[in-house]
Amino acid sequence: MTRLSDNEYRGVTLYNGYDYEKQVWVLNGVYQRCGHPEDMNCGCYGKAHAGERAEQKKYSCAACNENFEGYEDLATHRTVCDKLSSEVLKRADDIIGYTKHMKKSAN
């Protein structure tokens, strides 16, 4: 079977299409059951969650945990997030400190 159309979203929620992260089809905003036999232990998301409403995709900043409706909003936020900047600088300082420590230990 060949897919001829794109996913349809309502806001940031998948309404019709295929959720590639969960590997499940969504029809009218509802997860669809997988096509595996009933007695097969497939572990599919669709088998476990068939009939449930599709979840809204959430995008959140890893540094400050602020949530955004779309990836574009998150990307814009990343350019001004003070916590993200300080977290990146702290990690860089940790790496530089560790590298200096290793060089001293090697001598």
Could you explain how this protein is built, in words?
It contains three helices and six strands. The protein has helices spanning 45-49, 71-78, 82-106, and strands spanning 8-10, 13-19, 24-27, 30-31, 59-60, 67-68. The termini are far apart. Strands 1-2-3-4 form a four-stranded antiparallel beta sheet. It has a two-stranded antiparallel sheet with strand order 5-6. The radius of gyration is 22 Å and the shape is elongated. It has two domains: 1-57, no CATH class; 58-107. A hairpin with a 6-residue loop joins strand 5 and strand 6. With 107 residues, the chain is of the alpha+beta class. The model has no long low-confidence stretch (mean pLDDT 80).
Helix content range: 25-40%
Q: With helices defined by DSSP (H or I, 4 residues minimum), what is the helix count? A: 3
Indicate the overall shape: elongated
Strand content: 15-25%
- Report the uncertain regions: none
Mean pLDDT: 80
The strand line-up of the biggest sheet is 1-2-3-4
Protein name: C2H2-type domain-containing protein
Organism: marine sediment metagenome
Helix and strand arrangement:
Layout: E1 8-10, E2 13-19, E3 24-27, E4 30-31, H1 45-49, E5 59-60, E6 67-68, H2 71-78, H3 82-106
Keywords for this structure?
elongated, 6 strands, 36% helix, 19% strand, two-stranded antiparallel ribbon, four-stranded antiparallel beta sheet, single chain, alpha+beta, 107 residues, C2H2-type domain-containing protein
